[in-house]
Fold each of these.
Amino acid sequence: MIFGEDDAQPEPQPGQPHRQQVRLDASQMETVYANSFALASSPDEITVYLGCNSPLPGMKQPTVKISHRMVLIPQNAKRLAQVLQQTVKAYEDRFGPIELPPPPRRQQG
């Protein structure tokens, strides 16, 4: 996989930043399934916790097993958010809207 400019792209004009081509090595990549996530942040980083929620029937309080943590600088977190937004829009343009259930109602008690 290669991310960056195509070889056919013209050279950047003076004063424009040059985007460096990056080659990804996926030879030791692991794939994980995550259907749950949590976020935390500090002034220097944003942390995404990924996990899997596999509740058994009748469980009152299922446990999400956190399997991976991704730590990002805020600028890369914003880039990721922008790319995810573009990707979801392209998905919906192709396959139709993604419906989200309404948030659960808080129980008064």
Amino acid sequence: MCLEVVAQRRNPTTVTAGECMARTPAVCHPEDDAYAVLARFAQSQSRGVVVVSDENELVGVLTLSVLASRAAAAAQELYAALQKVYEENTSRAGSTHGRRRDRHSLVASA
């Protein structure tokens, strides 16, 4: 709203929210996945998407910053999980390699 008022050099005490709002807001549903919501952001070129139920009742507003924050947290969780798998595999590979050596030394000494 502030950008709208400043861009048009209007008096903020006389401008209403209705004059600044998008006429056709970007809308999504709670079950929409992140890619669908990102597409809505891109289409509307806005920083917010209205979330509505199947009955078109307002559920909330999703902002681009919240979506980015959640995506960053998910990426960190994925990285931590991948790192754990890598460490476990490296640990197993090292112990398996050690067992092979032990078997070879047993065979050689027999």
